[in-house]
Amino acid sequence: MSSRAKTTPSHMTAAEFDRLFEKVCNWGRWGPDDQLGTLNYITRDHIRAAATLVRTGRSVSMAVPINTVAGPDNPRPAFHYMVQAYDTQNTHTEPQFALDYLACEFHGDCHTHIDALCHIAYRGKLYNGKPMTAVTSRGPLSMDITTYANGIVGRGVLLDIPRLRGVKWLEPGEAVTGEELEEAEKAQDVRLREGDVLLFRTGHHRRRLELGPWNVGYDGEGKAGLHSDAMLMLHERRVAAFLPDGDGETVPSNVEGVAYPVHALQICAMGMAACDSLQFEELVKVCEEEKRWEFMVVAAPLRMPGGTGSLFNPIAIF
Amino acid sequence: MSSRAKTTPSHMTAAEFDRLFEKVCNWGRWGPDDQLGTLNYITRDHIRAAATLVRTGRSVSMAVPINTVAGPDNPRPAFHYMVQAYDTQNTHTEPQFALDYLACEFHGDCHTHIDALCHIAYRGKLYNGKPMTAVTSRGPLSMDITTYANGIVGRGVLLDIPRLRGVKWLEPGEAVTGEELEEAEKAQDVRLREGDVLLFRTGHHRRRLELGPWNVGYDGEGKAGLHSDAMLMLHERRVAAFLPDGDGETVPSNVEGVAYPVHALQICAMGMAACDSLQFEELVKVCEEEKRWEFMVVAAPLRMPGGTGSLFNPIAIF
Amino acid sequence: MSSRAKTTPSHMTAAEFDRLFEKVCNWGRWGPDDQLGTLNYITRDHIRAAATLVRTGRSVSMAVPINTVAGPDNPRPAFHYMVQAYDTQNTHTEPQFALDYLACEFHGDCHTHIDALCHIAYRGKLYNGKPMTAVTSRGPLSMDITTYANGIVGRGVLLDIPRLRGVKWLEPGEAVTGEELEEAEKAQDVRLREGDVLLFRTGHHRRRLELGPWNVGYDGEGKAGLHSDAMLMLHERRVAAFLPDGDGETVPSNVEGVAYPVHALQICAMGMAACDSLQFEELVKVCEEEKRWEFMVVAAPLRMPGGTGSLFNPIAIF
Amino acid sequence: MSSRAKTTPSHMTAAEFDRLFEKVCNWGRWGPDDQLGTLNYITRDHIRAAATLVRTGRSVSMAVPINTVAGPDNPRPAFHYMVQAYDTQNTHTEPQFALDYLACEFHGDCHTHIDALCHIAYRGKLYNGKPMTAVTSRGPLSMDITTYANGIVGRGVLLDIPRLRGVKWLEPGEAVTGEELEEAEKAQDVRLREGDVLLFRTGHHRRRLELGPWNVGYDGEGKAGLHSDAMLMLHERRVAAFLPDGDGETVPSNVEGVAYPVHALQICAMGMAACDSLQFEELVKVCEEEKRWEFMVVAAPLRMPGGTGSLFNPIAIF
Questions:
Q1: Were both Cys, which of A289, B293, C267, D292 would link to C120 (CB 3.0–4.6 Å)?
Q2: H-only helix segments in A24-159
Q3: Measuring CA to CA, how many Å separate C248 from each of A69, C64, C174, C230, D249?
Q4: Which residue from C165, C197, C203 is spatially nearest to C184, judged by alpha carbons?
């Protein structure tokens, strides 16, 4: 059982953060024109190996249903309307069609989505050192979400921190260190390997289901997530993609003057496929039944030119 | 080589159509409350077997890029806007975020999407005999797209009709019969089996790439696709899902007084997961390289309550 | 000074409500095909007379700024995005254009809007006895907002209830009777006449500015507004249009089993041009300076076919 | 009758254009912080005088109905959906509400709208010399459409060029000079005065109604409108606002290397309230009946913070 001490984020200065940024930085690693980042870790062998994890033929969604109700964690609710329903007076032979419409500002704490590598700038730079002017008011000129068009396909490993701690969920503001991730590996008898897709569970969505939504921002209660230091472990293990419930990092930040340091490290420094706001409540039941925390993952963003990210519905296959 | 005669749809009366509807009707087959339709054909064994098709570790998108430009086949272009780009005057340590927004009426001939079982009513009924009043102006009360939340995972088989015919694409208005599908099977040395995901290529998107968009509707040139009769073959083979380029059926219809008869048969009668407007131009290259037209398919609609369908990005894995 | 007793809505049974509905009902008054309702009261003479009220040449907006921030009274915030900003690297001669986009579900408590006569059905009927099937899932077939295309032009009279009561605003749940409207007339030395546009102030927006937003619904604190009985007075005076701050009626309703009875009476029974969520905070200052509560009003909804209402910016001219 | 020679735009070099820009430039005229531009010309006296033009009590819309159908001049159609229609099974006493939703990228050739002063940058500057960095990807920091919140109220003068020329409409590419505007004044016996609202008719919408839409852009047939030189006349006359059918200027441009020179002159140099895509087909009938081309105009943009313009429905009152 991890000690409570780990849950209190240790402080980090801006200078320490910049040193950490350097340590995990992948700029140039895959060439000056690379737009794939850590997805480069996933080789064909990894995909082939991932498919061998499909043993019982079950598939599970890791998406939260699209939410059209405003709330403290959903200030930009999705808009969903019918374009047309049926004319119930008409039962003639001509088929009728029901149509609908969706509008969404999807980078929110309630919308399951993936971020593109152009989504974050730090000190004026994007991943791989590209200038932030590569993103214009009409959209990004490079590293948009279509670089992930063929999807993220690989071995998924779920690290379930509430399970490790023996709690239903982590409380807002609690942080998970790299050390605790390793404890979770041991407790679950799995090990993150190069090219893996890390699914990171804090129980965020479980808490939301049971207690209702809360303000997850800096002006509210915050949320549980990774400690900045944990990025060192993800970097060393060469994790390819990061899919958390919540948005993956503890809020408030433990770094002086840097809000969302984990996002900056993941996306800007490491070039990692970072996702937001998944839910693992259906997945954990299957994991417990299957007694395993590894499976095949297929996660395909919409093929949206100019997207700084995308709504998506990532699937785990057992 | 299939004869040209097959490309001219034979006429069908409304009464003949209704008999065909009866023949392929799956109402009640999986119980009165079923909302999964032909996806019931996909068993865990099928999913497990599909994963064994992953031999070279390649993944390929089958989605058309989201299209924001109005045109004769895109009268409802998607709207994509930046919510914010970067403040290029600011290069301080605080990370900056680029955000965007998507709005789409996605049931169009240019948007790669999947239809929910509530999408079509015929003679006042939805699949499984449900009344069309189950779809209200606020959305469907049952059989919305969330019934497919766990995705379509299975064995994909591509039947490439232009390859069979030795042409670049089928011309608008040409029809493909069940017999010709069987010819394609033989030519490609594959066979559709129970629970398969059928990918049906007419070369629609290839034609669009080379000649530009055209009016695909009844008031225009129409499009190539399945002949209504072909649904008998799909029914007998117990195909689970249908993913065409174009929207899968020939326009104009060969059925008197019934526009879009294939859609009515697939969705309303058979309860089939029917999709629209995929593209296989990247896929066919991989198929030719791999010398096989079967692979694993993972296709996950957005988890959108009330959706009569969804944008999606279906993935083939070799 | 009106007594506190008036502020507590007296109870009304559903049967009493139906009798009130009959009393104020204008169905057939302007013929079976009428779609203008009480705007018929505004004759050319009224418009001409209204223009003579323009004596000092001042114009004042009565709209609340469009609100893109979700809150307890704004669960469907407007979405406003830039389509493009400027390319600041480019200072050549070619003019550049900044463009934007607005999306809004405008019938909300935070969006200044006007209702079309098709906006409300009571017991299955719309204004003038039209069946509610005249509104389909694709939009209304009659009495949409384009019937008001030429705008509401007339004599505006502001009745300022907080001024009468000597308070800054009315509290949520307080009700204003027809008798109190008459008291306000006397206190302000104006009188509502046939064809007038009634601007009705409860101080709703003043309260919002000073105390912040609150939940205005039945599950919240409610709002101040007219008592159902007041519609008798409006009916007898032949008021042409009703423009309140808030949405004009007290919540919760004082009628058993009828939420929003004032809306039903105004729109469905009377065929009145009813508006929502204006603000008079700039107007009252001008009124006090001018020492008059009558002026010209010009209020033009967007010319939106199928609109059940419209965003608008009504203008008072002194 | 104006000679055909006038309809062929004379050529202008970029240097000549810059001299013209200087001649009509109002930067600093109303102080360094001015955001109202030529609306400053409208004094209270002008508004009072405008109201005296209301003699017969008729009001007329000058807006084109909002257009949801894509076409060669409407590549970004408006999206209008019902949020809910009525439940026709329910005829109980509880009132029902029909609700809708509008989404629009309104700066198009088919959407009647007004431009804000921040809408155009020329050589890196906005009106009054403000830097174009005042418009960010999140919206303008100054001179947005809310500066016009109190509406444009004044004397409208319609100059009807097809009437002058004895044609139904001007053909695309034809240009109208200041001299021809003066001819129209004489023919109609009106004279533009300081603070007037100029309504400028080319018959654009009449042509569209009769011949259908056409491509109005540089890559199409273009449109009829003002010659750049005409801005001198508007400047000298101190016109306050400009409301054309079409978008007011001839396309293609007669200025070398400057597309949309009239827009640049009006908005950036002069600070004029410039509008787009009105229609005067209802108005001209009333003008002919009334035998006058002057009237009161009230035009109120939506009060939209950050708007670079707004949909609106301008009203003429006789």
A1: C267
A2: 44-51
A3: 25, 15, 11, 11, 45
A4: C165
Q: Which residues of C touch B83 (CB under 8 A)?
A: 81
How far does A266 lie from chain D, in Å, by closest CA? 25
Whether residue D86 and residue B133 make contact (CB cut-off 8 A), yes or no, is: no
Neighbours of chain A (3+ CB pairs under 8 A): B, C, D
Burial class (CB in 10 A: 0-12, 13-18, 19+), A213: middle
Give A-chain residues touching D82 at CB under 8 angstroms. Answer: 81-82
Using DSSP, state whether A123 is helix, strand or coil: coil
Q: What whole-number distance in Å separates Cα of residue A286 and Cα of residue C134?
A: 50
Using DSSP, state whether B67 is helix, strand or coil. Answer: coil
Q: A261 to each of A85, A264, A268, D57, how far by Cα in Å?
A: 46, 5, 10, 65
The one-digit pLDDT tens for each residue of chain C (318 residues) are: 344 444 455 789 989 999 999 999 999 999 999 999 999 999 999 999 999 999 999 999 999 999 999 999 999 999 999 999 999 888 777 899 999 999 999 999 999 999 999 999 999 999 999 999 999 999 999 999 999 999 999 999 999 999 999 999 999 999 999 999 999 999 999 999 999 999 999 999 999 999 999 999 989 999 999 999 999 999 999 999 999 999 999 999 989 889 899 999 999 999 999 999 999 999 999 999 999 999 999 999 999 999 999 999 999 999
Radius of gyration for the alpha carbons in chain B, expressed in angstroms and rounded: 20
Q: Mind telling me how many Å the CA of A176 is from chain C's nearest CA?
A: 32
**Cβ of residue A88 closer than 8 Å to a chain D Cβ:** yes
Q: Helix, strand or coil for residue C223?
A: strand
Residue tagged 């131009």 (tokens): B281
Contact D193, D232 (CB under 8 A): no
pTM of the model: 0.95
Q: What's the ipTM?
A: 0.96
Between CA A82 and CA B140 the distance in angstroms is 9
Report which DSSP code applies to A166: T
CA separation, residue A35 to residues A130, A138, A268 (Å): 10, 19, 12
| Residue of D277, D260, D256, D276 lying closest to D268 (CA atoms) | D260
Measured over the CA atoms of residue C37, residue C38, residue C40 and residue C44, the dihedral's sign is negative
DSSP letters for C127-194: GGG-BGGGEETTEESSS-GGGGTT-EEEEEEEEEHHHHHTSSSPPTT-EE-HHHHHHHHHHHT----T
